[in-house]
Amino acid sequence: MIIDTADLDPTSSYKLLIGSVLPRAIAWVSTRSTSGVCNIAPISFFTVVGRLPPMVSISLQPRSDGVTLKDTFVNIRDTNEFVVNLATIDNAHDVHRSAFEFESDVDEFEALGLTKGTTEVVRAPRIGEAAISMECIVDRIIPTPPLPDHVVWGRVERFHIRDDVYMPGGRIDTAALGAFGRLAAEYSLIDNIFTTPLPDEVVDHWATARAVRLDERPTNYSPIDTQEWSASGSTK
């Protein structure tokens, strides 16, 4: 199958991207509006873009109506700050719930029952339940027309790392985190680690095996085929 991207609408393009670029790390972003209302959203168009200063990038689409800017983006644009929190399996359902489109006057920490952790540089709270949080100041905002999408680069000013996952030598105990990522419109738990080369029999097995579902749904199930999915990254 060869697909000419000139023939794709935004939804079709999005489906191919999220099914091809995976697993994607999830930035569980907390922000605060100019009026003091706190917002939380999972952003899987997320990566590292710099080391000195440490810098991360998130990309935000509009709400599911395709027009209205998400509260997360509006808050970042208006306050010049945000917090990236690590998504881990013990918070997976709250991460998913935070993808729903709450009204702009709803404090999502309160709606989701999450703790407002203290921060040192930004006014937005970190998520207290997260093992790792990064306080970020906006470095630049890049619009990506013709759609109302935006890329945000943030300078990391403070790391908050739970003591039990911070190891001697300044590294993170990644095997202890229970991190998970985005897999198309679903999620994937990071529960195995390897270095190469792997034994041939291991490669042969995993190269042909279908992924194991943890939710007991059929192996070909996807939320993309349901009414709750939208091409905005939000859950309806």
Calculate Rg over CA atoms. 18 Å
> Helix share of residues?
10-25%
Mean pLDDT: 96
Which fold name fills CATH's third level, the topology?
Pnp Oxidase, Chain A
Q: Which spans have pLDDT < 50 for at least 5 consecutive residues?
A: none
Order of helices and strands, N to C? HEEEEHEHHEEEEEEEEH
CATH class: Mainly Beta
CATH superfamily: Electron Transport, Fmn-binding Protein, Chain A
Structure report:
The chain has 236 residues and is α+β, with helices and mostly antiparallel strands. It has one domain (10-225): Roll (Pnp Oxidase, Chain A). It has five helices and 13 strands. A seven-stranded antiparallel β-sheet has the order 2-1-5-8-9-4-3, covered by helices on one side. A two-stranded antiparallel sheet has the order 6-7. A hairpin with a 3-residue loop joins strand 10 (166-167) and strand 11. The longest helix is centred in the first third of the chain and has 11 residues, at 10-20. The two termini are 31 Å apart. The relative contact order is 0.18.
Defining key terms:
single chain; Pnp Oxidase, Chain A; 236 residues; two-stranded antiparallel sheet; alpha+beta; seven-stranded antiparallel β-sheet
Brief overview:
The protein has 236 residues and is of the alpha+beta class.
Secondary structure: elements and pairs:
Blueprint: H1 10-20, E1 27-32, E2 38-43, E3 46-51, E4 54-60, H2 71-79, E5 81-86, H3 92-97, H4 108-112, E6 116-117, E7 126-127, E8 132-143, E9 150-161, E10 166-167, E11 171-172, E12 180-183, E13 186-189, H5 200-208
Antiparallel strand pairs: 1-2, 1-5, 3-4, 4-9, 5-8, 6-7, 8-9, 10-11, 12-13
